[in-house]
Write a structure and sequence with these properties.
With 173 residues, the protein is mainly α. 78% of the residues lie in helices and 0% in strands. It has one domain. It has helices spanning 2-16, 24-30, 32-45, 50-69, 73-97, 106-126, 136-158, 163-172.
Length: 173
């Protein structure tokens, strides 16, 4: 789910431009990326967390949706970093600590790092601020290669010696 939303988000950015980032609906839908990927990680590799993490993801999605669409800016400043940020950290750090994960699964964590860097840079731009040397022009310059590398890392992590091949081999035994 998270990967499908990521694909659709990328296509919307290509065809509609950066202006769509200001839409509260886009921020709500974009929260499905880290929430979906991290929920899948918790489900597969951290079974003790999965029940609680599902509730965390549902409450987080609703909190982001309500505060974004409802224009509750002060509460949105709490909801987005809390739920989007925690789930992003899980998708970045989780693959490195996943017990029983296939050899190449760490690449999913690298993809999580890359999408996190891109997301942080985009967040600063949409707020009208600059992060370190990331001006709007420099972010636009590196965004496409960053998204390409992130997609490659996810693809390799989830397929080559990764989740899907590992899961299918496990089911075949």
């Amino acid at each position: 789910m998270g990967f499908a939303v990521l694909l659709i988000s990328g296509l919307l950015l290509i065809f509609l431009g950066m202006g769509i980032l200001a839409s509260p609906y886009v921020q709500t839908v974009a929260s499905l990326i880290p929430l979906g990927i991290s929920m899948g990680l918790a489900e597969e590799y951290f079974p003790a967390w999965k029940k609680y993490f599902k509730w965390f993801a549902v409450i987080g999605f609703l909190a982001i949706a309500i505060t974004s669409i409802g224009g509750m800016d002060s509460l949105k400043k709490i909801a987005v970093p809390l739920f989007h940020g925690v789930s992003g950290l899980v998708s970045f750090i989780g693959p490195f600590y996943a017990k029983g994960a296939p050899k190449g699964f760490f690449r999913v964590g690298i993809g999580g790092l890359l999408i996190g860097l891109g997301g942080i840079a985009l967040a600063f731009i949409t707020m009208g601020k600059q992060l370190l040397f990331f001006s709007p022009d420099s972010v636009m310059l590196i965004l496409t290669p960053l998204l390409f590398l992130m997609t490659g890392a996810y693809l390799l992590g989830f397929t080559k010696n990764g989740y899907y091949l590992h899961k299918n081999n496990r089911e075949a035994r």
